[in-house]
Design brief:
- With 425 residues, the chain is an alpha+beta fold.
- The protein folds into 3 domains: 13-115, Alpha-Beta Plaits (2-Layer Sandwich), CATH 3.30.70; 123-331, no CATH class; 334-424, Orthogonal Bundle (Arc Repressor Mutant, subunit A), CATH 1.10.10.2840.
- 40% of the residues lie in helices and 14% in strands.
- It has 14 helices and 10 strands.
- It has helices spanning 39-49, 60-67, 102-115, 123-135, 142-145, 186-205, 266-277, 295-308, 325-332, 335-346, 358-369, 374-381, 385-399, 406-424; strands spanning 13-16, 53-57, 75-78, 81-87, 90-94, 163-171, 209-213, 221-228, 280-289, 318-320.
- Strand 3 (75-78) and strand 4 (81-87) form a beta hairpin.
């Protein structure tokens, strides 16, 4: 605290009348007109209350004590003067005998805190917050969240370069993944497991490790990663194994190598984590991120892709945003509308139900996979053609729908998919 206006050697203060400008100081952020950020609110306040003020600096030892106790806008008495904290070791002192009632002091506090520069948000923390927020939304709200504009990230550079957001899920329980099979303290086991997974993931993505998020249903832990794109990322999978995403490429569905079902890069990461940590891993991957303003949608599409996974008959270990547009549409439909569709479809059935037995559901999916071609479906399902035809007749008699006609097969397929997911939920 500075007493009687005297400052330690090496520091200075400026006595200013209302409207005069504060001095510049090396290393301090200045506003566009060349002054400090607090310059304008102080001038306007001093002009309104018709009082002079001093902008003062404190000695380092005094700053250390004051910073623990005072924040921007905090007031205190220095002898007969009122002082208000501006930032760090800077404060404004109003003259002795000046009349500053409580409501005036509160007004200046509000003005200072309203214009105080906010530190730039940490990108990783912001991405984790987005993922946690989206994970709490109802199923049908998540796809719509992809369309939201979060321009708050537009000024944040994508420090990692173009790439994709990966949401990694670890399915295990503390103690169950240990090599010796011995249990222990759950908290310690949980921390050890997370540390082991993080160590392996960092070997692949380097500083693209974003951090842990709230785990999805059934998972022990979930984490966000940023996987850098390589020059050939969108063309074909690579065989490199260098860390940081520079050699292991994201394998995009539909590119070369799709027949063997490999997800190069991400697939290798999952295999290494599973082998080293003895857990089961799955992941979802968002849309490409090329600019800072794409970061939110990268996170949102990774979350939405995972939620849409429930509509798959055989969910893949790695699900990509855009893999299944129909699943995205179904995910967006409110639960009440899904139930209305099922009831409307069942009204046509002789027994009032379109839900099929497991063997008939298998026939229906086989027909759809074979483009309603009976011979091809028999080959896919490993059934004799006559056996398949008999089962198709059973579906027709039970539901009133003909699975060999496209629209009828579509209604049956949707009704049974909705029935299966409603049982899961």
């Amino acid at each position: 605290m500075i007493r009687r206006g005297r400052l330690p050697a090496g520091r200075s203060h400026v006595c200013r009348r209302a409207g005069e400008r504060a001095p510049q100081s090396p290393g301090r952020a200045a506003v566009a007109d060349g002054g400090f950020w607090w310059d304008r609110p102080l001038r306007e306040f001093a002009r309104a209350v018709e009082l002079d003020y001093q902008v003062c600096g404190e000695a380092p030892a005094v700053q250390q004590r004051a910073r623990r106790q005072r924040a921007t806008g905090d007031w205190w008495r220095n002898g007969s003067r009122w002082c208000v904290c501006l930032e760090g070791g800077w404060y404004a002192a109003f003259p002795r005998g000046g009349h500053l009632p409580l409501h005036w002091r509160r007004l200046l506090t509000w003005m200072l805190r309203a214009v105080r520069p906010r530190p730039a948000p940490d990108v990783r923390e912001q991405m984790r917050e987005w993922a946690n927020e989206l994970a709490l939304r109802p199923d049908q709200d998540v796809p719509a969240a992809v369309l939201e504009d979060r321009l708050g990230s537009a000024d944040t550079p994508v420090r990692w370069g173009p790439g994709r957001v990966v949401w990694l899920h670890v399915f295990s329980a503390p103690g169950a993944s240990r090599r010796d099979g011995a249990g222990g303290d759950g908290g310690e086991e949980a921390e050890d497991l997370r540390a082991a997974v993080e160590q392996v993931a960092r070997a692949f993505v380097g500083d693209g490790w974003i951090g842990w998020t709230e785990p999805v249903s059934g998972a022990f832990a979930s984490a966000l990663l940023y996987w850098r794109a390589t020059p050939d990322d969108e063309d074909e999978p690579g065989d490199g194994d260098r860390p940081g995403g520079t050699g292991l490429q994201l394998y995009q569905p539909g590119s070369a190598g799709d027949a063997d079902g490999r997800r190069d890069g991400i697939g290798k990461l999952l295999r290494v984590v599973e082998a080293d940590v003895l857990v089961r891993c799955e992941a979802s991957i968002g849309q490409p991120v090329n600019r800072a303003c794409d970061l939110y949608r990268g996170v949102a599409t990774a979350v939405a892709a995972w939620r849409c996974r429930q509509w798959s008959v055989r969910p893949p270990r790695v699900v990509w945003w855009g893999d299944d547009p129909l699943a995205l549409l179904l995910q967006s439909v409110p639960a009440a509308v899904r139930e209305l569709f099922r009831d409307t479809a069942a009204a046509r059935a002789p027994g009032g139900r379109v839900a099929l037995a497991p063997e008939l559901v298998q026939v229906l999916h086989g027909l759809v996979a074979a483009d309603l071609n009976v011979s091809e479906a028999a080959r896919v399902l490993y059934l004799h053609r006559n056996t398949l035809i008999n089962r198709i007749d059973r579906i027709r008699q039970q539901t009133g729908y003909d699975p060999q006609h496209f629209l009828d097969a579509l209604v049956l397929w949707l009704a049974n998919v909705l029935d299966r997911t409603s049982v899961k939920q």
